Amino acid sequence: MKKLILSTVLSAAIFVSSATCYAAEIPRETAPDGASEEAVKITENIMGSILDEVYDGLGYGAASGRANTLIRQAVENEETGDYGYGILSAISQNAIRYAVTATALAK
Question: pTM here?
Answer without folding.
Answer: 0.76
